[in-house]
Amino acid sequence: MTDAIASFGAGRRPVSIHTDDAAKARLKGRYRAETWFKWLGAAAVALAGLFLVLLLSTIVTQAIPALRQNYLTLPIDLSAAKVDAAKLDAVNYDAIAQEALTAKFPDVTSRQDKRLLRGLISTGTGVFLRKDIAADPGMLGGTVDYAVPLDDFADLYLKGLLADVGSDEAISTSVTPSQSSGDIDLTFGDDAMLALARGHGATEGENGMLTLTSGASSLLVAFNGGTVKLTALSPGANGTAVAKGTVIEALDSTAPAASGQAFLRVIDTPEASRKISDKVIVWLDTLKSAGLIESRFNSIFFFTGASREPELAGIWGAVVGSFLTMIVTLAIAFPIGVSAAIYLEEFAPKNRLTTIIEVNINNLAAVPSIVFGLLGLAVFLNFFGLPRSAPVVGGMVLALMTLPIIIIASRASLRAVPPSIREAALGIGASKVQTVFHHVLPLAMPGIMTGTILGMAHALGETAPLLMIGMVAFIVDIPGGFTDPATILPVQIFMWADFPEAGFQQKTSAAILILLVFLVIMNAIAVILRRRFERRW
Amino acid sequence: MKKFLLTASAAALALATSAGYAAARDQIQIVGSSTVFPFTTAVAEKLGQSGQIKTPVVESTGTGGGMKLFCQGVGENTADFTNASRAIKDSELKTCKANGVTPVEIKVGFDGIVLANSKAGTVVDLTKEQVFKALAKNVAVDGKVVANPYKNWSDVDALLPATKIEVLGPPPTSGTRDAFVELVMDAACQEEVKAANEKGCGEIREDGAFVEAGENDNLIVQKLEANPNAFGIFGFSFLDQNADKLQGHKVDGVEPTFENIASGKYGVSRSLYIYAKKEHVGVIPGMQEFIAEYTSEGAWGPEGYLADKGLIPLPDAERATWAENAKALKGMGS
Q1: DSSP E strands: which ranges in B135-212?
Q2: CA A243, A246, A248, A252 torsion-angle sign
Q3: Mean pLDDT, consecutive 10-residue segments, chain A of 537 residues?
Q4: In this structure, are A401 and A488 located in the same domain?
Q5: How many CA atoms lie within 13 A of A435 on its CB side?
Q6: Which pairing describes strands B138-141 and A293-297: parallel, antiparallel, or unpaired?
Q7: Which residue of A has its CA nearest to B22?
Q8: Under an 8 A CB cutoff, do A385 and B237 touch?
Q9: pLDDT higher for A89 or B166?
Q10: Does B58 touch chain A (CB under 8 A)?
Q11: Confidence (pLDDT) at B19
Q12: Which of A57, A151, A184, A241 could serve as a FRET partner for A81 with CA atoms 20 to 30 Å apart?
């Protein structure tokens, strides 16, 4: 006790529960908790941002190749001998285009190789040609240079997505061929080639024989205007190397190529594990170096309907289908939703019945969307007998799904209009209906619109309810009306993701990108409406 | 605003009712198996391109779902064709008949079911018995039926690699699963398991070694790429299209190649069918054109475009018979 007094006397500040050491520790702890929370929050946001960036960047990088398509320009013979101007529909345009292509490679004679060569151009070539001739009959009567889309594998190869192809490297020794076509022997001036083949997965045999099977990288030697694919190598006399090879493109002559005159190209991906053969690669490179292949903006993707061929598949059918479906959804959900909201908010008596209705509307907003699809199947298709796969049914189902969202948003914005507005209108003699439609509704409109647009955006991204009513289908023709079979954007994405062809991977990403753009635009409109017209009291 | 609301709802109503009185359908509707879907869509597109008829609409509903829609009855609101990755069942045919539907059966080709893994994984040579032991829910050990105890492939057979058994496959709703169970699990079933439970052969283990990967075969392909130790079970067309990433494994010593499946050497293959509704021929335009296109050599022949899509053609003689039956619209059970 005396100690305490003494210490007071020494001029120390009085110790209270707010300033003693325990309190300081508590304070420190509180600050620490706050800092922790701040950091955790920031980390959560950063993580979410990281995932978003990751997601978007994967989609965008995957989608970019789909925005362009490679075209091959061929001299197409449309003279009267080939095309009968009176019977344009009966002409086999595919055959004419394929003839123009095979004429570029007179060396290709075997049936199988010809088939491979014909596969370079898209199977839709004939259809494009027929359409273009119908639009411009002036093309007829002579030979025209016409750009045809390349097949999906050729296209993917040119985009660098199918095989790792090294650049041409000059061979620093002489190369002597035994023949200019067929299976030939090549003699290299030194044995550097042997080590190179070993490094690329060649199989060792007897007497230093190295075999390049289809499981090894492909070694192609280009000289004298032709290309030879090496199949086996063995050491020759005087430190030379002898290779066996198959000529893919005929050589001009059997003259030896001097050091630096021949070029080696290594395709690292073995032929067995890629969807494009060495021959096709050589052909494509020849066409490319001749300046016949051109990469263009992929208008097919944006302006045509679905297809089973990746190079012919387009998104336009799905965009039109989405648009038609959304029109029906809006035409049904908006008037009914707003009317219901006005009635419930402004006119309905507050009793047990309206409370039950209110609770159920809120519950409806949480019902899984597939349930609406089942309802659509049972009621619209089976009971009313409406057509399958039609936007009108899809729109009705989605309208049912968006209704509760619109009602809830509309009621909230009607409620936000201050009672003074209603009282003033009533006060100067307006009827109840006049009050609502002349004064309350216009003020609530921006909020209602925002809710509606968000509800529509939600509906635009739905697939599940449409599964049941047949809109998840392969539909090629672009829908022309509300009862034509149609599909919508998310369904198109879902279906492309399921197709086995590699070319559809890029298309899927590109379609996702387009859907995202639509959603961003719709959300932006909602934000702008809110910013510009919303009034606060 | 009031006017707007009124006109909008009137328009919506008019729309809804007018749809009920739509003009007669002029476009073929096809439903059914997701395995046959890629081939039927190719034929549909080809036919649409030729400009003869409007491009048929093809839905992928699964074989069972397709049969249900197909056999529902005759009329504009029912499907004209159904795809099937197995032959129609007696019960389904009965329903069809009861509803006045006469199906015309057309066998269009074969599909192999393959066991594959990533190119980065090991190559194995399996027998059906080994696959059964690795995947069955109950197996016989020393004459007693027990819950599958095998964790690694090497537990099944010492010659197999010592990696964990991890197989991605289709769910029970899939026709591929039905066929896999029938061709592998039932075929290689152990006597003890069969004796203990008549349906025990088809039961696949649920302890995590077999993962149901959904109907999306592309998803299986992507998962296999990411995990070299996992195996996948799917249709040959996916192996064919992803030959750069995946390798198929021998089953009973036969490699799953186009030639082996076509010749019937590869044991795990099944037949694919389409069924046409005889009553709709002449009513819905294009029915006969569609059948003719599907059964043309340019489509289902060995050099046809369906072969490029992974369909394995029937032998020449069989193709000729089916094409003839299809042309004559030979209905089933009549």
Answers
A1: 138-141, 144-147, 167-169, 210-212
A2: positive
A3: 48 71 90 96 97 95 92 90 80 87 86 85 88 87 90 90 79 86 86 85 82 83 88 85 87 86 86 82 90 92 91 94 95 96 92 92 90 91 88 94 94 94 94 94 92 92 88 90 92 88 90 94 90 78
A4: yes
A5: 20
A6: unpaired
A7: A483
A8: no
A9: B166
A10: yes
A11: 42
A12: A151
CB A147 within 8 A of CB A311: no
d(CA B61, nearest CA chain A) in Å: 9
Whether residues A338 and A482 fall in one domain? yes
- B218 by Cβ neighbours in 10 Å (0-12 / 13-18 / 19+) ranks as buried
Do the Cβ atoms of A472 and B59 come within 8 Å? yes
Choose the closest CB to B8 out of A123, A334, A497: A334
Residue B29 to residue A389, Cβ atoms within 8 A: yes
In a domain, A134, yes or no: no
Amino acid at B167: V
What pLDDT is recorded for position B146?
Answer: 85
What is the phi/psi pair of residue B152, to 5°?
Answer: -110, 160
Task: Please tell me the distance from the alpha carbon of residue B51 to that of residue A136, in angstroms, as a whole number.
Answer: 19
A256 and A343 share one domain: no
Q: Are residues A330 and A376 in the same domain?
A: yes
Over the stretch B229-272, which tens digit does the pLDDT of each residue have? 889 988 888 888 787 788 888 888 888 888 888 888 888 888 89
Contact A490, A463 (CB under 8 A): yes
Q: What count of residues does chain A have?
A: 537
Residues 175-214 of B with CB under 8 A from A: none
Compute CA B115 distance to the chain's CA centroid, rounded to the nearest angstrom. Answer: 16
Structure confidence by residue, pLDDT tens digits, B23-54: 468 889 999 988 899 899 999 998 888 877 88
Q: Is residue A209 part of a domain?
A: yes
Backbone angles phi, psi at B23, to 5 degrees: -65, 165
Comparing C-alpha atoms, which of A302, A342, A331 is closest to residue A318? Answer: A302
* Single-letter amino acid code for the residue at B114: V
Which of A17, A40, A64 is a domain's end point? A64
Q: Do A483 and B49 touch (CB under 8 A)?
A: no
**B241 has a chain A CB within 8 A of its CB:** yes
* Lowest pLDDT segment from A306-315, B155-164, B276-285: B155-164
Domain assignment present for residue A12? The answer is yes
Closest residue in chain B to residue A308, using alpha carbons only:
B42
Pairing between β-strand A218-223 and β-strand A226-235 as defined by DSSP bridges: antiparallel
Q: What is the DSSP letter of A343?
A: I
Rounded CA-CA distance B286/B280 in Å is 10
Contact partners, residue B123, CB within 8 Å, separation at least 6: B247, B249
Is the Cβ pair A335, B5 closer than 8 Å? yes
Mean pLDDT of B181-207: 82
pLDDT, residue A87, reads 80
- Tell me, yes or no, if B310 comes closer than 8 A to chain A by beta carbon: yes
- Work out the number of other CB atoms within 10 angstroms of the CB of residue B91: 10
Of B12, B45, B243, nearest to A308 by CB-CB distance is B45
Cβ under 8 Å to A: B residues 82-101: none
Q: How many domains does chain A have?
A: 3
A181 or B72: which leads in pLDDT: B72
Say whether B15 and A273 touch across the interface (CB within 8 A).
no
Phi-psi region of B151 (alpha: psi -120 to 50; beta: other; left: phi over 0): alpha
Are the beta carbons of B57 and A473 separated by less than 8 Å?
yes
Helices (H) then strands (E): counts for chain B: 15, 13
Query: Does the structure show a pLDDT above 80 at B140?
Result: yes
Domain that holds residue A413: 312-533
Residues of B in contact with A273 (CB under 8 A): 119, 243-245
Domain assignment present for A420: yes
Residues A192 and A319 grouped into a single domain: no
- Is the CB of A331 less than 8 angstroms away from the CB of B20? no
pLDDT at B6 (0 to 100): 52
Chain A contact set for B41 (CB, 8 A): 308, 474
